[in-house]
Here is the input.
Amino acid sequence: MESDPDLAVEPVPAFDDNYLWLIAHGSQAAVVDPGDAEPVLHRLRQRDLTLAAILVTHHHGDHVGGVESLVHATGARVYGPRDEPIPSRDVALAGGERIEVLGVEFDVLAVPGHTRGHIAYHAPSMRWLFCGDTLFAAGCGRLFEGTAAQMSESLARLARLPDDTRVYCAHEYTLSNLRFALAVEPDSAVLRARQQACSALRARGVPTLPSTIGEERATNPFLRCDVPAVKSSAEAREGHPLSSSTDVFAVLRQWKNSF
Ligand SMILES: [Zn+2]
Here is the structure.
């Protein structure tokens, strides 16, 4: 299935830095986190696609703002977290389910932290991960509703997916995240190389996404709380030793908030 030429994922840019990910299979489509309906409707018309499904990761406005208009225009089926207010939701998900969308099987993962009911959609056969505002390229979402312990467990869960899993994050935050990552690990050659590669992409207006789990494990400080260089940076920032990787995560998240 991974080589099915009719199956593709493409970014639909929206607002300042959101990507609404469109999955196309033949003449059918699904969209992840449509914060705005208009760019999605435009792309559907342009590509002559019928919208069959809407996958929602969490309740924030820039992820659900276009859902009702899209349902009104297309009748698409809406999947979303059970414990959050999701407009026009047909299928309520809590994590642990397996759903089929456009002939592709997705495992639903509970990844609380950014919001309490946040879920991610993982398609093992395609090596796709749609993770909303949980994991970003070289960064992670803010803790609006959950705890540092919840978020670090959610990220650890995503980090255990295969290295070649493509990570479709919801925002183009990569360059600012990489600046922070380099403050945490200034001696990392692989981080410098990633910054150069991503800067070149942005200079041409090209998305830096999808990332991969392997890249994130190598460069994302929030997935590297056990790495000695990351731990000692967090300890230097905090001024005392940190006993657990959750404590390291909490310091990094706080540090990034004011970076
Ligand atoms: Zn959000």
In short: The mean pLDDT is 97. The chain is about 35% helix and 25% strand. The longest helix spans residues 189-203. The CA atoms of residues 41 and 70 lie 8 Å apart.
